[in-house]
Amino acid sequence: MIGLAMTAVLLALIVDLLTAESAQSRRFISRGQAAVEQLQARRIFVTEAARATGTADARQLGALRILPDALVLQGQGSAQPVLRWTAGRASFSYSHDGSIWRSTSDDAESDIVRFTLQRGDQSHVWIAP
Q1: How far apart are CA 52 and CA 38, in angstroms?
Q2: How far apart are CA 13 and CA 86, in angstroms?
Q3: 97: Cβ contacts below 8 Å, ≥ 6 apart
């Protein structure tokens, strides 16, 4: 009888552990998906910044455009979201040497490009050489 009770307790403990691990894995996967989306957005930014030529400003860089809540890639007649945010302010800036940054560029091809997303007191910065 005691053996049967111990078996039931151990089985309940194993089921509880397996369920907790599964919930933890789901949380990890969701965090991982957000990280993957950030990496994909950064890759698109770097690629498109390298393709940009001509003049650029704080909101437009080649095919990339900053909207109030998103960084988008302008295609032929459509805009594909690259990165979205619910609160914050974003901008592009440009530099020849990485120390002095300007809000416009006459030649985006030869400048270092910085994308900044300001959310409260946190800044997310991507730089494309």
Answers
A1: 21
A2: 41
A3: 112
pLDDT digits (tens, 9 = 90+) for 78-111: 889 999 999 999 999 999 999 999 999 999 999 9
Strand boundaries in the chain, DSSP class E: 60-61, 64-67, 70-74, 79-84, 89-95, 112-119, 122-128
Report the distance separating Cα 64 and Cα 48, nearest Å: 7
Helix-then-strand count for the chain, H and E: 1, 7
Counting every residue, how long is the chain?
129
**For 98, what's the count of Cα atoms within 13 Å in the CB-facing half-sphere?**
5
User: pLDDT, tens digit, for every residue of 67-87?
Assistant: 999 999 998 888 899 999 999
